[in-house]
Amino acid sequence: MKVHVQKYSAVATWKWDVAEDEVCGICRVQFDGTCPSCKYPGEDCPLLVGKCGHSFHMHCIFDWIGTESSKGLCPMCRQKFEFEES
Amino acid sequence: MLKIWHMKQKQVAADAAEGPAKRRVTAAQLRAQKDITEISLPSTMKMDFPDPDDILNFTLTIEPDEGLYRGGSFEFTFAIGSQFPHEPPKVKCKQKIYHPNIDIEGNVCLNILREDWKPVLNLNAVIVGLQYLFLEPNPLDPLNKEAAEDLKNSKDMFARNVRSSMQGGYVRSERFDDVRKR
Question: What InterPro entries does this protein map onto (chain A) (predicted)?
């Protein structure tokens, strides 16, 4: 028997490569959700993984690093917050 | 190509048309809401929301059941600003009390409310920190320098001063509020 595929709809899901129940330490929203200033999750609201191993929504950590009191430190471990540019 | 992209763009366009005023819940409110649901208060503390629709302003009453401040009832106001959690909540003591780390205007000296604040701390951490101030007043980081000196010089005299101040009495020429638990 031969089957001719005339049409198909591809569906894909995605998630960030972090533990399922992990939340952003700054806004406490799951990583698969958005930071509070975004409406839709995804590439527009990415995660940032610091060299110290702590991850945050990019917008959340940038807000924090932008404040004077942060002194550029990771809010989890107080090491300097650095990340790999990719 | 992908339909979802098209849908998303439509959504974004619709949102732009509605304008940004539509978003009623701020980031500070979202985060405060989460923090408040996580708070587990011991029997010595309670929270009150004067305006139930405003979760950003509330009071916390601490009634220590041990330590020098036992028998007192201490009220604090919490004001969470729009920059929360990037800025700590503003916490003030409503009463005038004799304490090395709380000045007579009610300002509180607690490291995590000031220089050591970080957004991963939550309201529970602040509340635990406040409770700790009544169990272990810290003379090394004073706001009320006289009280701190008293504590450093003689714990007995400091304890007597705490007692009389809590009854609405004087310490030196300063009169304090009666904070006895009713």
Answer: RING-box_E3_Ubiquitin_Ligase, RING-H2_APC11, Znf_RING, Znf_RING/FYVE/PHD
Q: Is B109 a catalytic residue?
A: yes
CB distance A25–B34 less than 8 Å?
no
Which residue type does B85 have?
Answer: P
- For residue B174, pLDDT over 80 is answered with yes
Is A37 within 8 Å of chain B by CB? yes
Give CATH for domain B25-175. 3.10.110.10
Q: In this structure, how many other beta carbons lie within 10 angstroms of the beta carbon of residue B164? A: 13
Which amino acid is present at A51? K
CA atoms within 13 A on the CB side of B116: 8
Nearest CB to B85; choose among A26, A40, A76: A26
Interchain contact, B8 vs A40, CB within 8 Å: yes
Q: Which long-range contacts (CB under 8 A, 24 or more apart) does B112-117 make?
A: B112/B88, B113/B88, B113/B89, B114/B88, B115/A69, B117/A69, B117/B87, B117/B88
CB-based contact B15 A28, cutoff 8 Å: no
The answer to whether residue B39 scores a pLDDT higher than 60 is: yes
What is the predicted ipTM?
0.75
